[in-house]
Amino acid sequence: MELTPRLQDIVNILKNKGSINVKDLALEIKVSPKTAKGYARELQRLGLVDMDQDGNIRLKEHKVEHPDSEKLLKTLENHENEITLLKKEIEVIKGELEKLKKKGKA
């Protein structure tokens, strides 16, 4: 089972911030609080996060109970690496495109 790109984004936010409130998460990912809470509940169901009564979400620190969670975390790490490589490739292509634009104007 793989995480959707949106759920991967939320896990990355939690990795960077440590924890976040559902309302703040909604603002950050530009969705309604209800939608953000749904995403948090899905991650909670998968055993990746804890959510308290006040809507604060954080990654679980201990070994997660869901049988696929280790596989999900490894998949997430692989996707993060792929995204990093793709971003680097995009920057190279942008540079080449700028060179071609300048060459065409000369």
UniProtKB/TrEMBL annotation:
Question: Would I find Translocase among this entry's keywords?
Answer: no
- Entry annotated with the keyword Coiled coil: yes
Residues passing through the membrane, by range: none
Q: Which residues form a coiled coil?
A: 69-103
InterPro entries reported in the protein's UniProt record: UCP032840, WH-like_DNA-bd_sf, WH_DNA-bd_sf
* Keyword annotations: Coiled coil
A family per Pfam: HTH_24
> What protein am I looking at?
Helix-turn-helix type 11 domain protein
Species in which this protein is naturally found: Saccharolobus islandicus (strain REY15A)
Q: What is the lineage of its organism?
A: Archaea, Thermoproteota, Thermoprotei, Sulfolobales, Sulfolobaceae
